[in-house]
Write a sequence for this structure.
């Protein structure tokens, strides 16, 4: 199987393997679920809101998760927060696929501490070339990871390959609006080393191409704005505590990037949501 990852994926791997990024996401973002949260209030703890996202996504596929013997792949699993919740609550087996060996090392320790190492297999790799046999999984899961690929159509084709007939995909992703004008996201895209982001229209088009059924799509743009503003607020508040863990240069770069995301979201050019598709039986 090819491991010729896109340049964007290779850059992402190097970024998340860095000590600065690891300490930022572990100490500021929550250290469990390092993805966009669903906020009941703008000042809610990031970890609580991020866990609510996992809970909400699990509701979308609760029937599949509750089926005996369910096997799930988490694409871009990070520190494995979702994998642990799903394995513990539903008893499913999880392959946690993630580029960063730094994050994978943390995840293995956390899985072991939770008594779930036997249910969760942590694998280093890219979702552009999933290291798994055809039709292995009942469910594919991903949170805010597919945006990092420069070949998103390839990612979805790989998901289609490894899903069993009738298998499901539930995921979130930061996206550009369907009507996003050319050039307005340049500051966001420059930081991601990407020419564009996907959109709801892109994912729907790809699902149709693969013959998937659209089970449900929920747009939650305001949550993206709230989340990135909340992360920036927390980073500024805890900056002195991060001395020796996260460099000043990284913090300044992160704060600038977070401002760009919030501004683009407020202008309506960035969005986010939960998407749920089913492969034909």
């Amino acid at each position: 199987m090819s491991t010729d990852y896109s340049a964007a994926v290779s850059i992402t791997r190097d970024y998340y393997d860095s000590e600065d990024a690891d300490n930022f996401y572990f100490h500021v973002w929550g250290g469990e679920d390092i993805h966009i949260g669903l906020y009941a209030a703008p000042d809610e703890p990031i970890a609580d809101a991020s866990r609510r996202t996992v809970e909400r996504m699990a509701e979308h596929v609760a029937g599949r998760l509750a089926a005996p013997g369910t096997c799930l792949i988490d694409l871009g699993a990070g520190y494995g927060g979702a994998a642990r919740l799903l394995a513990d609550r539903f008893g499913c087996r999880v392959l946690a696929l993630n580029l960063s060996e730094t994050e994978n090392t943390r995840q293995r320790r956390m899985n072991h501490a939770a008594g779930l190492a036997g249910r969760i297999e942590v694998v280093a790799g890219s979702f552009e070339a999933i290291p798994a046999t055809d039709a292995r999984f009942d469910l594919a899961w991903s949170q805010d990871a597919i945006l990092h690929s420069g070949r998103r159509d390839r990612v979805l084709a790989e998901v289609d390959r490894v899903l069993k007939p009738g298998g499901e995909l539930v995921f979130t992703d930061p996206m550009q609006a369907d009507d996003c004008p050319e050039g307005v996201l340049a500051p966001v895209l420059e930081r991601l080393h990407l020419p564009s982001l996907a959109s709801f229209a892109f994912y729907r088009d790809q699902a149709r191409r693969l013959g998937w059924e659209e089970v449900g799509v929920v747009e939650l743009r305001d949550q993206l704005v709230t989340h990135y503003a909340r992360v920036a607020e927390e980073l500024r508040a805890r900056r002195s505590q991060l001395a020796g863990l996260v460099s000043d240069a990284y913090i300044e770069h992160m704060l600038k990037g977070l401002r760009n995301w919030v501004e683009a979201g407020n202008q309506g050019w960035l969005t986010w949501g939960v998407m749920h598709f089913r492969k034909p039986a």
User: Anything to note?
Assistant: The chain has one domain: 7-278. The chain is about 45% helix and 20% strand. The radius of gyration is 18 Å.
